[in-house]
Amino acid sequence: MTDPAVSVPALRVETTPVAQFPSLLPLLDGVKPLVFIRRGDGVAGLGEALRLEFSGPDRIRDAAAAWKRIVAAATITDPVRLSGSGLIAFGAFSFADESARTSVLIVPRVILGRRDGVSWVTRIDGAADTVGATPLGAEYRLLFKPGALGPDAYRDAVATAVQRIQSDEGLSKAVIARDKVGRLPEGADLRRVLTELALGYPDTWTFAVDGLIGSSPETLVRVKRGTVSARVLAGSVGRGADAESDHAAALALATSQKDLDEHRFAVQSVLDSLRPHTPSLVASELPFTLKLPNLWHLASDVEGTLADGSTALDLVCELHPTAAVAGTPREAALAEIGSLEPFDRQRWGGPVGWVNADGDGKWAIALRSAEIAADRTITAYAGAGIVAESDPERELAETTLKFRPIVEAFG
Ligand SMILES: C=C(O[C@H]1C=CC=C(C(=O)O)[C@@H]1O)C(=O)O
């Protein structure tokens, strides 16, 4: 970021309640959509009033500090007082410290919100943009091809990780991803993809921030009026073809020691990061099975009361990367990922979400997602948590299922 001491703008922020938006998606900019919704509720943005860029190991810490300065200088009128009204910034952060992909906080010129039957518009510095649905652009389809780590190379990478985990006491779990690439037609209306994702995966966070687009089932952290919560996912199996085999798949997952181990590492990493900030952190003793259209996941909800006034971004900084996307222990897992994945994950597996002026916010882990580059190349990623008992063929099949939301929404 440029020297913040010199460049903190005094944003004038005004929220007004409006007639209910039937849906936020038709109101978006189809080429540069900005949105974070679940089951139709959430926030969207038009244009950019402010864009802050960060990189390197301190990218999230720098963003958290910059946001506090922006908020302190802003004048906010917000009669709506709901989650997402008033001043917010959308954000997306790279997975890796050394990523070439820039991390961002974006304050749109106009913010649109919808929650519990109430809708609102927030204008920054009196922005006069019209808010209204525009016709969808032409239909398109694109095919994804294997990227830098194709299916055969992925199996080999998983086998190498398994060997290392079995022989090295310093590594228990590593999440290894592969990539697929495609090319977006010029001027493609991304609202088509977002609509597919939101309708197909209604219980996930559907998002588009600065070219990062997807539908993630995993809540990295949510801060709301002094409480903190997270939904940790790790351990997966494909849905069965009929009711009986589907039930059997869920049961097998819930009783699989390999998946329970994989899950335990992920929950532990979240508890370790949050515990210093809350005296009352509760997680269920056993995970539950979460049903998505493509997969069953082992899931645990974690909740607590915040004792130290941490903002959502402060906690994002502590939590990232959890063992659901990196592994255990964190440093050894990151080294393993670095040696086995021949690509930059960009912002896949990183935090994506929003923060408001009180420090409340909702952040997902950017899974089931793709990055769109300036030249319209799209790179999608999917990974799997590798532990000592992992089988390369099964992990490859799991990544195919995890690619499904993105591949089908663009296809
Ligand atoms: C790494 C991914 O998922 C993570 C989240 C849920 C389940 C996971 C698993 O079972 O491996 C992964 O930890 C992905 O979606 O590409």
From TrEMBL:
Annotated EC: 5.4.4.2
Known catalytic reactions: chorismate = isochorismate
Ranges where the Chorismate-utilising enzyme C-terminal domain occurs: 152-402
Listed transmembrane segments: none
Coiled coil (UniProt feature): none
Keyword Methyltransferase recorded: no
Enzyme category, top tier: isomerase
Gene Ontology molecular function, alphabetical: isochorismate synthase activity
Keyword Ribosomal protein: no
A Pfam family reported for this protein in Swiss-Prot or TrEMBL: Chorismate_bind
Assigned keywords, A-Z: Isomerase
GO BP annotations listed: salicylic acid biosynthetic process
Record family assignment: Belongs to the isochorismate synthase family.
UniProt cross-references to NCBIfam families, sorted A to Z: isochor_syn (TIGR00543)
Name of the protein: isochorismate synthase
Organism: Schumannella luteola
Taxon lineage: Bacteria, Bacillati, Actinomycetota, Actinomycetes, Micrococcales
